[in-house]
Amino acid sequence: EKNVEWIEGVIIIIVAIVPALVIAFYAWINERQSRHFQSLVELDQKCNVIRESTIQQIPIKYIVVGDICEIKYGDVLPADGVIIQSNNLKVDESSLTAELDLIEKYESTDPFLLSGTHIIEDSDKMLILAVSEHGQTGMILKLLSTIKEQNNGKKKQ
Fold this sequence. Notes:
Protein name: P-type ATPase A domain-containing protein
CATH class of the largest domain: Mainly Beta
GO biological process, one term: regulation of cytosolic calcium ion concentration
Main location: membrane
Domain P-type ATPase A: 44-144
Organism: Rotaria sordida
Strand order of the largest sheet: 2-1-3-9-4-7
Strand content: 25-35%
């Protein structure tokens, strides 16, 4: 009977551990594929920038502060910046502000453009002022991450 109890204990442990390991393995594979896909998407997104008086098409992840970026209808802004040349720029900032109306931007009165907003009308040039986590979208994501961590810490207590 001692041999049977030992075997039953091992079987119970195996039945509990194996599914957890399988789930963890599939979650790891999924996360790895997701990161790979995200990196491919980031490399595929490109922007025309003016550096040293020449136009270059570069992946948006390589945009730096001080670049002059050409923006046009349909673009999602890759960084925060200011308009330096515009005719009649209209943007959709609903992804950041939840406003449903299109916003008209002017060099003289409202020149600031935020990453993640959509260009709806016109093609213009903007000077990049902040990229990645230093931009408005990055700050919002960082704040949300901090709040989530604080909430998780409160749940554990």
